[in-house]
Write a structure and sequence with these properties.
The structure is a single chain. Among the domains are: about 1-100, Leucine-rich Repeat Variant (Alpha Horseshoe); about 195-250, no CATH class. About 40% of the residues lie in helices and about 0% in strands. With about 250 residues, it is mainly alpha-helical. The protein is built from 13 helices and no strands. The radius of gyration is 28 Å and the shape is elongated.
Amino acid sequence: MEIDEARDWQGNEVRCENCKHRDLRSAGKCELRKACVQDRYARRIDRFFEWNPELSNDYLTHPHFEARAVAACYANPFLLPPLLKDPDETVRWEAGRRLPKRYLLELRNDPHREVRIRVASLLSGVDLFPMMSDSDYYVRLMVARTIESSLLPLMILDSEPEVRRVVAKRIEPQWLGRMALDEHGDIRLEAAQRMSPEQLLVLRNDPDWRVRYHVASQVAVSELALMFDDTDPVVAEFARERAARSGSGLH
């Protein structure tokens, strides 16, 4: 549902008779409160440029950031590089996403986290290296979700547990033993869930009962006896029950 009022970015009423594009109205190329470049709402501006993309080049320096940002979606890409220095992050991103990768790389150090997060979602490989040490944890989280798994060992020691958890979910199997040494139980559990039964034996005495419970559910039945007296009664009971169900004779 469209908002009923028509105001420009400074709060003034939009009047068609004062607009330089007023002749477009009779041609069905603009409409007050629906498709209007003078309006303060991005949806109406976007519809105007959708109907009149040839006019977008003229609005790349408009004082209203919404007009510049939407115009960047339709304008000639050759005119967009200067917008990478725009004071508004939305404008910088809209320009960057339409430009060749060499321009997108400039935004890896953008001052706004949302721009860097979006950049990280589009890059890959060595282009993401500088972003592995980004000051914002969510940028690094996006890097961990995006980068090739073979490069994830470089993020094993990230300071944010949530980033390391994603690393543990995606890292190549030979690194899981290292991830299982993490100080945070959630990361060790994530690693344990991807380890083989043989690898899990080293985690029988893990300080987190969830990890030990997973170990008890996966290791060979012949290895369960050492867990019958686990400090957590749930783990101990589960180990005994699993051994009993197997008919192994362990008790």
